[in-house]
Amino acid sequence: MYLYTLCPTVKHSLKYFYTASSGNPDFPDFMAALLVDDIQAAYCDTNIKRVESKQDWMKTYFDKDPQQLERYTTECSEILPKIFKARISSVMQEFNQSGGVHILQTVCGCEWDEKTGEITGFMPYGYDGEDFISLDLKTLTWIALKQEAVIKLRWDTDKVRNEQHKSFFTQLCPEWLKKHLDYGKNSLLRTDRPSVSLLQKTPSSPVSCHATGFYPDRAMMFWTKDGEELHEDVDRGEILPNHDGTFQMRADLNISSVSPEDWRRYDCVFQLSGVKEDIITKLDKAEIRTNWVKPTNTTVLIVVAVVVVALVLIAVTGFVIYRKRKGERENGKIIYLTDSFCPLILVSELINLST
């Protein structure tokens, strides 16, 4: 029996990414993206001035609720650009900046724990790639993450606005999140099992258990010996996104101390949220995929020949430069045109001899 079991907690999120820029004519003044469970569902900016659906289910959502589409469009093309233009100007003043290219970003939204029902809101701001200020929903006050964030003093005193933030994070955001999940459930709430492979660079390298093509990203991978999870000699990688919206991850096992007769005692175990059966891959040399090719005598000779040619080229080139500089010192502007071609001729001859 395995010591590790995947935590059954399932969390969903709704995030609005806002980006305002100043001083860059080739960049939209304002951009907005809507993400559900970290999957982009919609996008707009001040150049296109419309909301674009990035998922089929999001288009269906807008078709069924045109008022929401109109609301998003008005906010993205009119209301939010004005608000963020004023905010980025205010922040520039706090940094004593009168020009240049600057970026103000925020991600606001909520996370919903499907099992416990807990709602977590967030609204941090970043300026020119660094954390700037963040809202503390428990105290309804702003936390200055940079010394220059004196804007905190003004935002703390705006009680009405902060209460509106609280209402959004605790009521509207969870409601919209669940509505989006309902429309996108066939895509967002699906489970895709991965393909699992054993990979190895060289016979002495760690064996990498690699899973790709799984969804959602709530997964765990680990190695076991005789059914018990290993912690030593194991290196777990992070879960990474694929271009098609699925995910990949790996877990490496150091086999330097594993004897060949013990290989069958090791298993790679992959667990995916929503799937009861684990995917178990036994450590088997016959199943390992690698690009490594055992060097042959011909390969060694070719490598040696290339190294010799490179060394000769360096030596001859250095000698030519030495003679050229010596000639310039003794006779003024003397240029050895024939010498400048010597390295190329010599290399060509060496290649002919080696073949």
From TrEMBL:
SUPFAM superfamilies: Immunoglobulin, MHC antigen-recognition domain. InterPro entries: Ig-like_dom, Ig-like_dom_sf, Ig-like_fold, Ig_C1-set, MHC_class-I_related, MHC_I-like_Ag-recog, MHC_I-like_Ag-recog_sf, MHC_I/II-like_Ag-recog. The chain crosses the membrane at residues 300-322. Keywords: Glycoprotein, Membrane, Transmembrane, Transmembrane helix. Pfam families: C1-set, MHC_I. Residues 194-281 form the Ig-like domain. One of its GO terms (biological process) is immune response. Belongs to the MHC class I family. This is Ig-like domain-containing protein. It comes from Lates calcarifer (Barramundi).
